[in-house]
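task queued by scheduler; priority normal; single chain, no ligands, no partner chains; default sampling; output format set to structure tokens
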Amino acid sequence: MEHKHIIIRAEVNKPPKDTHFIEEWIKDLITAIGMKRLSDPIAVYCDTKGNRGLTCLTILSTSHIALHTWDETSPGVLQLDVYSCSELDKNVVFKHIEQFEPSNISHIIIDRKTELKIQEQQQN
């Protein structure tokens, strides 16, 4: 059993703002990475000035996905956390966020199988 955890921070030109859209987007991501969801995604929009954006959470049979966005800044910010107990193709995840037009992406992949070991890290 694998224990891969990818954490992505991206500056995006088109941050999502619609909760229904992002729930469907998360479902599509789950399919694209070959995972199985145990619950439907739950998304909420925070409209507090200085903290406006979406949060969406989903429980997978192999762990979880959490997405947070902030849309008041230009560019907006998207942070995506995908943790899986099975193989995880980072390129599929990166491809999936392309529709938000990222201008800068940083990520870290942590192997959590026996200890917290940074497997890969890229800062842009």
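post-processing summary
- The chain has two helices and seven strands.
- Residues 4-122 form a domain with the S-adenosylmethionine decarboxylase fold (CATH 3.60.90.10).
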